[in-house]
Amino acid sequence: MSIKINDRFLNGFISEKEINETKIKACAAKKTLLDGNGAGNDFIGWVDLPENYDKEEFARIKAAAEKIKKSADVLVVIGIGGSYLGARAAIEFVKSPLYNNLKKDTPDIYFAGNNISTTALTELLSICEGKDICLNVISKSGTTTEPAIAFRVFKALLNEKYGVEGAKERIFVTTDKARGTLKQFSDEAGYETFVVPDDVGGRYSVLTAVGLLPIACAGIDIDKMMEGAQAARACFREADFDNNAAMQYATYRNILLAQGKSTEILVGYEPYLTMINEWWKQLYGESEGKDNKGIFPASVIFSTDLHSLGQYIQQGQRNLFETVLNVKSTGISFEIPNDPLNVDGLNFISGKSLGYVNETAMLATLIAHNDGGVPNIVIDLEDKSAYSFGYLVYFFEFACAISGYILGVNPFDQPGVEAYKKNMFALLGKPGFEDMRASLEKRISKD
Ligand code: PA5
User: Fold this and answer.
1) Which tens digit of pLDDT belongs to each residue from 326-355?
2) Can 307 be counted among the known catalytic residues?
3) pTM of the predicted model, to two decimals?
4) Which among 437, 431, 328 is positioned nearest to 385, based on CA atoms?
5) 286 among known catalytic residues
C-alpha cells in the first residue's frame, strides 16, 4: 500500500463507538459513489479516469510536451483554481518548488491567470522578454475572467513575436470538448486542443489534460503517475474499512467535525508540499463548504510555521484538528556537520541526518499538539515519486467524495463561487448586469 493512515495520535480523541457508527456511513457513501446514484453523479468521471482515460489524447499530450520542450525556454500555463493547482502541485512535489531555478533540459514553467495582479502579470511579461515562449491555456468553461485576461495578453504577445502562423504552433488549449467560446475560437485559430471531460469538475481534473500537459512538460513521467492512480483506484474501490485509507480518513474527519472540530489543518514538513496543500484546500473547501456545512481547510508547513501559527495551534481556540502528510522517503540524505568548537551547542546531533531531525520535530510536535488538545491524523506516503503523486491525488479525491456524502452535501458542485463573479461583472459594467450595478454601487458608496 502506498498510503497508510496512522491513527496513533487520535488516541483519546475518538472512540470505538464513534468509529463504528461513522464507518457505516462511510461504507454507504462509498456504495453511493460507486453505484453513481448520489448528488452530483454527472461529475464522477474522475472515479474511473485512471483506467478509462483517452489513450489517443494521452499520446497527443506526450507529443505536445516534446514539441514544447524543444521550442520553449518558458511555458506559461494560464488557468485558475482546478485549472492550475494540480499541475503546480505535481511539479513542486515531484521536481521542486525551485523547479525554475534547477539545471534542466525542460522549459521554465510559470503560472498566470490565477489572479488579477498587475504586478504578477507585468513581472512575468518582463521575465518572458527575449525568451522563446509556449502557452497552455486551461479553462473548462472558457469564460473565466482571470485566465481570459492573461490569455488575451499572452496571445497578443505571441502573435506579435512569432506572427499568427508561428504563434499557432506555440499555443495549446485545454477546454471543453465542444462547448464554449474558447473551443470555438481555438478551432478557428488552428490551436491544438485537449479536452476537460464533461463529467470531471475542475478540482478533480489533475489526471486529465488539465494537469497532464504541464506536468509532462516538466519532464515528469505521466505514465507512472497514472499507474499510481490506477493502484489507488483498485485499492480504494475494493478494500474493506480496515485496509482502506480513504474510508478511514473520511470517517475520522467527520467524527472530529461532529465533535466541533470545524477546522482541519493539513500539515507538511517539506516546502515541496506547499502547493499540495493549496490543491487540497480547493478540493475540500469547494467540495464540502456549502449548505452552511463543511470543515474549513487550512494548511501549514512545519517547522517553518511552528514559529508563526504554532502558538495558536498549541493553545488557541480548540476547534482544530491536524492531518499530517508524512512523506517517508525523499531519497536524499544530508548529514549535519561537526563543529569542533561547538559554539552553537549542536554537536549532540553532529553526524545525524537532517531528515532524522525533521522527523523528530514531527514526532515532538504530534505529542505537543495532542497534549494541547489537538487530534492528529497521520497519512504516511512512501515517497515523492510521480507514482506516489498519482496515488495521493486519487486518495484525496476518493476520500473527499466519501466525506462529502457522509456530510450530506453534493461534493461536485461549487454554486457559491458565482457570487463574487456576478458582483464583479455588474460593477465592471458588463452588459446584462445593469440592474445589479446600481444597487451594488449604493452599497459601496460612502454616502
Ligand atoms: O473546481 C472548479 O470547478 C473551479 O475551481 C474551476 O477549476 C475554476 O473556477 C476555473 O474554471 P475554468 O476551468 O472553467 O476556467
Assistant:
1) 999 988 999 999 999 999 999 999 999 999
2) yes
3) 0.97
4) 328
5) yes
